[in-house]
Amino acid sequence: MTGTVAAQPAAAADQAGYQNVRINEVTSSNSDTVELYNTGSIAVSISGWKMSDDSFSPQTFSPSSSTIPAGGFVTFNSPKGLGDSDKLVIYTADGTVVDRVEWATNGAKPAMARCGGDGTGGWVTTTAAATFGASNASGCPSSTPAASRVRINEVTSDGADTVELYNGGTSTVGVGSWKYVDGDTTHSPVSVSSSSPSATSIPAGGYVTFNSTLGLGDNDSVFLLDSNGSTVDSVTWAANGAKPSDERCANGTGWFQTSTTATLGSANSCSGSGGGGGTGGGGGQLLGGGGSLTSGCTPEAPSGTGSTPAGTLAWPGGLDVTIADNVCAFTTSTGPEGRDLSGLAFDPANPSVLWAAKNKNWLYKLVKSNGKWIPDASWSASGKQIRFAGGSGQPDSEGLTVGTNGHVYVTSERDNSNNTVPKDTIMEFDPAATGSTLTPIHQWDMTSQFPQLNTGSKDDANLGFEGVGYVPDSWLTANGWVDPLTGAAYNPANYPLHGSGLFFAGLEWDGTLHVYGLNSDGTFTTFGTIATGKASVMDVTFDAGTQRIIATCDNTCGETHTFMKVNAGGAIVPDMTYTNPAVMPTDNLEGFAIAPTSTCVNGFREAVWSDDGIYGFGSGSSSYGHAIYSGTFPC
User: Fold this and answer.
1) Read out DSSP for 43-96?
2) What is Dmax (Cα atoms) for the chain?
3) What's the chain's average pLDDT?
4) Which one of 318, 338, 370, 476 has the fewest CB atoms closer than 10 angstroms to its CB?
5) What's the mean pLDDT in 395-424?
6) How crowded is residue 387: how many other Cβ atoms within 10 Å of its Cβ?
7) 3-state DSSP call for residue 460?
8) Stretch 96-104: mean pLDDT, rounded?
9) Distance from CA of residue 462 to its chain's centroid?
């Protein structure tokens, strides 16, 4: 039977947002420390909260703070020792179960932690190091185990009491011996395979749904356990938070929110307005901007607008967006009209730095000041001009990425001093070099691979390399990428001169990604072409937070971002596609970057866009003359 046993309702005294507090890390070594993390948008008081393990009744504990701020951590030492294999349950002051985690023998030594996002990631046992009071990222393994990529993705307490599991990994995971349990601590776990419909495995990128035989209440929890009895994932919702469903946003990775439409067995709609485990919603606002155009600054209306691809999901981050630059901020001697800011990339070694490429051969190092991204005056208050090898030409610099050596790699599709001829290159610049003009340390020329661009037309020559993203070898090997040159699993040792990652260049002509190993002797290895499913690609980035390569397209493809994964066959394929926040203009938004998860606050991190035409919503609007927009993306 389903739906016959409901958990005790949360008392009126339960603090708003309690369901967003997650156990984030625990150790059974020495101090028996527990870390709680608040994934929500409001602070939560934990005064009077209690905990229990597998053998003692709930007891109070002494946290490092009685309130957990939004996006904040609280730690405490267990009042009773935690065993080599044990269970930890957290309760509100009125006895409502908040979260629960279990581990097998030695699973919490040195620590058991959520990996892939504080408060939202899957549990990984025996992590490399404890990181109490800080993000788990540094203590998590570089490759999350396959079982930990299975997530509770959606749950409903409205009728059938259905649970949806999603496998965000690249291989099938057997779940026939896994179990689940609700928030009633008197209930024993029930096997997934004994529920209806019976489930024994989840394919890579696939879903499994089943109806809970325990019944799920208006306010309740679901805890998922693997075959060893260790917790894999959990979700808790407040009153009516799972009607019609409580769903992860983004699908498979984000925190939970109440949906407007249940999407069991498929990607989450993420169209709700909060209430289950997430934040409040609304139509969103475009904030900031304004100011008068400077002399010569001339915005350009967008061109080439196309339709949004079928199946595109709503933006999974915050609905509000802020205009985050000064008006006409990027006028230069070769681009006095102020247009053509294109590629964007956060510096992974210093995420307070945002690199930006301007088409007419300029590079900017941007830092935040009073909420705006402005040129770093200590590097150059007006940007630095870049040249091709030998100090010649005007690179039509479109995309950029940052390598592990801290160098900035920039794509160019033409020489603007001869703009009817393609020149599809990747250039490596050392940002520590002195002077106002930078020349590349290395330059790799792939022009001959694209004869379709060499027609004598400047329009065709302008459809070359638009973006580039550096993808680490560790991700490619951990996810089982098959090397198209050998037909076997990619082995970086076969290419000794290429460094520690490959470069994925996006071609505007047809939306394909072209994969290269850039060798230290100036040669390069071509690993073939990857289809993104898009008509064009304007920017490419690798996001370690979602473990995906992101191919961005502007208004040509309806302002969309396609997240790419390695599938079970070892090929890189589209996973899901998101559109921009609804409040943004439909312009030539050619640059896109997401900040590292180390910057997360309130369950969000920054996402940044650049408008190649600085047009915004047109003359008289607050966005007219501005290039940079700042929003949020889930951690």
Assistant:
1) -EE-TT-EEE-SSS--EE---S-SEE-TT-EEEEE-SSPPPSSEEEEEE-TTS-
2) 79
3) 90
4) 370
5) 97
6) 18
7) helix
8) 94
9) 30
CA distances from 259 to 151, 211, 272, 288, 483 (A): 17, 18, 4, 30, 40
**Is residue 2 scored above 60 in pLDDT?**
no
CA dist 163 → 243, 410, 536, 634 (Å): 13, 46, 37, 22
Three-class SS state of 453: helix
Joined tokens for residue 290: 């304004």
- Mean pLDDT across the stretch 292-309? 94
The set of residues, in sequence order, having a beta carbon less than 8 Å from that of 30 and lying 6+ positions away, is none
Give per-residue pLDDT as tens, 487-530. 999 999 999 999 999 999 999 999 999 999 999 999 999 999 99
Q: What percent of the chain has pLDDT above 70?
A: 95
Please check whether residue 236 is in contact with residue 19, taking contact to mean a CB–CB distance below 8 angstroms: yes
CA atoms of 600 and 558, how far apart (whole Å): 28
Please, which residues bridge with residue 633 across strands?
A: 605
> What does the angle CA 363 – CA 368 – CA 373 come to, to the nearest 5 degrees?
50
For 60-70, the pLDDT digits (tens) are 999 999 999 87
Cα–Cα dist 32/111, whole Å: 9
Between CA 428 and CA 443 the distance in angstroms is: 6
Greater confidence, 196 or 331?
331
What token pair was written down for 141? 């393994």
By the 8 A CB rule, do 178 and 202 touch? no
Closest CA to 132 of 68, 36, 47: 36
For CA atoms 57, 62, 68, 74, the dihedral sign is negative
Taking the model in full, what pTM does it have?
0.63
For 443, other C-beta atoms within 10 Å of its C-beta total 19
| Whether 76 contacts 64, CB under 8 Å | yes
Q: What is the DSSP letter of 625?
A: T
Q: Determine if residue 98 is left, alpha or beta; phi over 0 gives left, psi from -120 to 50 gives alpha, anything else beta.
A: alpha
Q: What is the pLDDT of residue 468?
A: 98
Q: In the sheet that 179-182 helps form, which strands lie side by side, from edge to edge?
A: 190-191, 179-182, 220-225, 231-237
Residue 553: CB atoms within 10 Å = 31
Strand, coil or helix: what is 494? helix
Closest C-alpha to 134, from 122, 153, 118: 118
CB 634 within 8 A of CB 250: yes
188 or 253: which leads in pLDDT: 188
- Give me the pLDDT at residue 11, please: 37
List, in sequence order, the alpha helices (H) in 238-306: none
Which H or E element spans position 468? strand 465-472
Residue 393's alpha-carbon distances to 318, 390, 407, 434, 440, in angstroms, are 42, 9, 21, 19, 12
Burial class (CB in 10 A: 0-12, 13-18, 19+), 612: buried
